Give the backbone structure.
Amino acid sequence: MSNPGLALFPDGREFFRVLIKAEKDDMDVDLAEQDMVEAAQRLVARHPEVGAIVLECANMPPYTAAVQRTTGGVARRLG
């Protein structure tokens, strides 16, 4: 497994659309959190051997606690 997490964001409602594709200027943080949680859940469902999810982008650490709650605590923030 090289980096299975990268492919999990493009279908998100908010995070990818705002921060990567720049489709709008403001971000709904609740929707962005849901995107992060759903992406993490898909990652763990597809790759149950995952021992850690590292949220290293400057925009991802605010969602660490939500990802930890929904994935059994595998999320870690970097920095």
